[in-house]
Amino acid sequence: MIKMVVVVKIGGNVAKEIENSDIALDVKSFLSRNQKIILVHGGGAEVTRVASMLGKEQKFVVSPGGFRSRYTDKETVEIFAMVMAGKINKQIVALLQKEGIPAVGLCGLDGGLIRAERKKKIIMVDERGRKRVIDGGYTGKINSVNADLLNLLLSHGYLPVIAPLAMGDEYEFLNVDADRTAAYLAGTVKAERLVLLTDVDGLILDGKIQPKLSLSEVERILPKIGPGMITKVYAAIEAVKMGVPEAIISNGLRKLPISSAVNHECGTVITGE
Ligand code: ADP
Ligand code: MG
């Protein structure tokens, strides 16, 4: 029986700084206590940078609910795969390996780890504030996770490092949001904690960090939360609804960020009650 699983998502800015942080040390201390970690990473800014070097300027759309997402056409999803499942994923794996951590890099296609349904249409708000329906491109909504593969790796002491790329019904690459991926994985493996590490100390409301919020409290303040954070809040809600006791949004640029989030020394804790 696996004792305690913590799913940790590291945002793009945290992934970029991982070499100068003590995240690896923090991960090691969890593993040494026989607690398991699954790492999920983002890296959208790097995808945008490489895409523009390849002459493919990226477009972003904002939904009526305030979600900002990359417009992902065929060429974009290929670049997304190259950068996320290639460069960023392997850099994180190499860094963890260097610290003696048995990291295994995967994306949703490997071992059929993450299956998703391609979004046929998405609704966006244009510059004039009008709603428009556009083709969903190669973005997906996750509908299943191969928990057996994760448990196999975890039970043998490996640390899965997962890029947010899923496999569609026709085996196509799909861009899936990293926060939502982490939430879905946490719910599926019945994780004890979901930790979303970003570049701010937590959810800010009226200029103040919110230390703790219940599902009902957080659902009431959704309209006040801006892009970037709103995705994390929805991911936290999703994880808690899937049975994860606590989701914590915290700062990955601080010292021992996973421990301090789990110990409630930093961040916003979202719980069922
Ligand atoms: P990541 O790469 O970690 O996913 P994002 O930029 O997507 O980072 O999301 C984090 C950002 O969300 C913060 O840097 C902040 O600018 C923004 N944000 C919007 N609304 C809020 C809020 N209410 N509280 C805190 N951060 C917010
Ligand atoms: Mg983000």
Brief synopsis:
This protein has 273 residues and is an alpha/beta fold. Helix content is 35%, strand content 29%. The protein has helices at 12-16, 23-32, 44-53, 74-98, 147-155, 178-188, 215-221, 229-241, 257-262, and strands at residues 4-10, 35-41, 60-62, 68-70, 103-107, 114-118, 121-125, 131-135, 140-145, 159-163, 165-167, 173-175, 193-198, 204-205, 208-209, 212-214, 246-251, 268-271.
Per DSSP, what share of the residues sits in E-state strands of 2 or more residues? 25-35%
- Could you give the order of strands across the largest sheet? 5-10-2-1-13-17-18-16
**Which oligomeric form is depicted?**
single chain
- Structural class assignment: alpha/beta
Q: At the third CATH level, what is the topology name? A: Carbamate kinase
Bound molecule kinds, no repeats: adenosine-5'-diphosphate, magnesium ion
Poorly predicted regions:
none
What is the CATH homologous superfamily assignment? Acetylglutamate kinase-like
Kindly, what is the distance between the CA atoms of the first and last residues, rounded to a whole number of angstroms?
A: 28 Å
> Which architecture would the CATH scheme give at its second level?
3-Layer(aba) Sandwich
Compute the number of structural domains: 1
Mean pLDDT: 96
Main sheet?
Answer: 8 strands, mixed
The sequence of SSEs as H and E is EHHEHEEHEEEEEHEEEHEEEEHHEHE
Shape: globular
The helix content, as a percent range, equals 25-40%
